[in-house]
Amino acid sequence: MILYAAAYYDDDYRKDFYARYHIGKTVHEDSAEYLRRSPVTYANKLKTPLLIHTNTIDDDVHVEEVKHLIEELKAAGKKFDFKFSRKPWRHSFDRIDTKLAKQTRLKIYNFLAQY
Length: 115
Description:
alpha+beta, two-stranded parallel sheet, 5 helices, 2 strands
C-alpha cells in the first residue's frame, strides 16, 4: 500500500508524488487518493490469478510493498504465485539475456498459458 510504503522512500522521491502533475498532495493531505491508487486496496477483488516477480534490491518498488500485497492476497484467499530475485538489474531482471531471465520468462509464459 502506498501509505504503508511511503516510509521507504526519501523526500526527493516522494516529491514526485506531491507534484501537481501527479497526485498534487502529500499522503497526509489526501490519504484517500493514495489508497485509491494502491493495488493493495483492491487485492480482495482479484478474480484472475496473479503472478508477481520482484527484485529485493529494487529502489523504486520496495520489496516491503510487494510483501504487503502478498499478505493482503493471502488474507483474501486469492490465487497467486510470486518470486523474489536479488539481482542488480532492478526492473529488467527478466528482460536481459541471462539464464535467470530465460527461466523467469518461461515461468511467465507457463503461468499465462495456464490461466
